[in-house]
Amino acid sequence: MSGHSKWATIKHKKGAADKARGKLFAKLARQIEVAARAGGGDPDMNPGLRSAVSKAKGSQMTNEAIDRAIKRGTGDAGDQSYEAITYEGYAPCGVALMIEVLTDNRNRTGADIRHIFTKSGGSMAEPGAVSWQFARRGVIVVDGSASEEVVFDLALEAGADDVVSEAGAWKITCDPSTTPSIAEAITAGGLSVLSADSPLVSENLVPLETVEDAKSVLKIIDLLEDNDDVQDVYANFDMSDEILEGAAE
């Protein structure tokens, strides 16, 4: 699996103690609001909302907070309206990046993203230059203390494609349309779901072979993710566990 996937798994595992957790919930709430405004407040009738709610629950966002976000999205249209934009670019070492944002000011966000690329040794790319390398996949991360047999049985019975051990957790992959139902089945089976999402993944991986290279790539990803308008960042780098551990210190 890609180094970015391993890095994301590590961050999900330490998320409960991370000071950025409040910012994560704010971004998840924005995604729920936008999905509810676009397609209604019933997750069963709104696939986009169902996916956003599944992602929020997978990040341990409370039902109360989710309900508030849905109500804001379906309320009288007088609140902020957000525009979904995807930026493409390259981190150092030629690593491809896809950056998904929700913004109420395209000019501000575009300038912020460009500034991050410039000061971090990366470069923006034209639409389509990077996106061809990525495809949407369902990814569910389960606490690594669960037994292999139980995880496999629950996941495969619910329709998952594969289960692998990664960064001390179990990573389940599936068709993105089945992510919410599989996550619900895993939770109903008594296991702890650390995250449930449908990220963009790439089969064209760029190997990072030194800690310095890994740190330079992770730096630009962290800066992008720290921007309030950025919802998700996807990358196609790969690295050994040893390099990842050195870069994460």
The Cα radius of gyration reads 18 Å
CATH class of the largest domain: Alpha Beta
Relative strand content:
15-25%
> Taking strands numbered 1, 2, ... along the chain, how are they ordered across the largest sheet?
3-1-2-11
Order of helices and strands: HHHHEEHEEEHEEHEEEHEEH
- Spans of at least 5 consecutive residues with low confidence: none
The span between the termini is 21 Å
Class derived from helix and strand content? alpha+beta
How many individual domains?
Answer: 3
State the CATH architecture of the largest domain: 2-Layer Sandwich
Q: Percentage of helical residues?
A: 40-55%
Key features of this structure:
3 domains; Alpha-Beta Plaits; alpha+beta; 249 residues; 45% helix; four-stranded antiparallel beta sheet
What does this structure look like?
- The chain has 249 residues and is of the alpha+beta class.
- It has three domains: 6-74, Integrase, N-terminal zinc-binding domain (Arc Repressor Mutant, subunit A, Orthogonal Bundle); 83-133 and 204-248, YebC, transcriptional regulation domain (Alpha-Beta Plaits), CATH 3.30.70.980; 135-201, 2-Layer Sandwich (Alpha-Beta Plaits), CATH 3.30.70.
- It is built from nine helices and twelve strands.
- The protein has helices at 3-13, 21-39, 47-58, 63-74, 106-119, 148-158, 179-188, 211-226, 241-248; strands at 83-90, 96-103, 123-125, 134-136, 138-143, 162-166, 169-174, 193-197, 200-202, 206-207, 230-235, 237-238.
- It has a four-stranded antiparallel sheet. Strands 6-7-5-8 form a four-stranded antiparallel sheet, with helices on both faces. A two-stranded antiparallel sheet has the order 4-9.
- A hairpin with a 5-residue loop joins strand 1 and strand 2.
- Helix 2 (21-39) runs antiparallel to helix 3 and helix 3 packs across helix 7.
- The radius of gyration is 18 Å and the shape is globular.
